[in-house]
Amino acid sequence: MNNKIIDLRSDTLTKPSIKMLEYMMQAKVGDDVYSEDPTVNELENLIASLLGKESALFVPTGVMGNQLCLKVLSNPGDEVILGYDSHIFNYETAAPSLLSGIQLHTIPNFNGSLNKIDVLNSIRENEYYLPKTSVICLEQTHNKSGGKVVPIQDICDLSEIAKSNNISLHLDGARLWNASVASNISLKSYAQFFDTVSVCLSKGLGAPIGSVISSTKENIIKAKKYRKIWGGGWRQAGILAAAGIYAVENNFQRLKEDHNNTKEFANLISINKSIKLISEPETNILIFEIEDIDPYEFCKFCKEQGLLLSSAFKGKLRAVFYKDVSSDDVFLASKILLESINNYKR
Length: 346
Hints:
By secondary structure, the protein is of the alpha/beta class. It is built from 14 helices and 14 strands. Strands 2-10-9-8-7-3-4 form a seven-stranded mixed sheet, with helices on both faces. A three-stranded antiparallel sheet has the order 11-12-14, with helices on one face. The chain has a two-stranded parallel sheet with strand order 1-13. The protein is globular and about 60 Å long. The relative contact order is 0.18.
């Protein structure tokens, strides 16, 4: 067994650097419930500017960010169209029905994209006995597709459908940062098509907590009210907002290192013919299968050897790369994985 543990389960495992912690300690703070925390206000203005929106709101989690956006864009009894592989549908604990009284209409994902015909066929007719289609959701990058970047043309096409049918468009942009770096397309260029956008600070960017939603001033005022109702009103949150500012200003462009490490890991493990990559990596997520191996049991075996992987994808394994995983870690992780396959099959 290796003494070092290499944890590739998620990019949520990033830890604040010493410089980030020092920056947090210097933050000027106030009461954010009164909108009087200067560092929170600075972070919100920064994100709104980067996304080209009127206003923004700092929230504790990505789930809360997505759910606040759905709340302000819908009414109870409405319906939301989204992919059946989306984070909102799979990993947010049925929150849309509990918090907003809305139902989800799922359609297939194709590398994260939604087919135009599928979307059009899913929009409800204007009849009183049918739910109203109020929102279409997209995820960028797309987690369950292996961190795929949804092409901007696909987004543009979806936006035209939404506008022509008077439907709002929401972006779960938890890893929009990764998409921007991988595609060399600005955050603003992606965000322009959406009524609401949620971005995460605590994944690849390395902040300890937090997401930011961005939209019109009117929508953000509504969202702030519901954030308070849902227990998300915080006080001297500038200490955490400072981490977000530091993350955006210092860790955004370095995401390409994570992308390169993901591709290198994929190349290293591909020498074993029992490993099947679900798709070639584009960003920081790799999903793969191993022939004749139970993923759950194999993950437990790898953990004993010093490598942590995610087995939460029904027969598939996921490895995610982030700033605390070095190029040396990539090589060691691939070595552990390949040796574990050989030893596990004995």
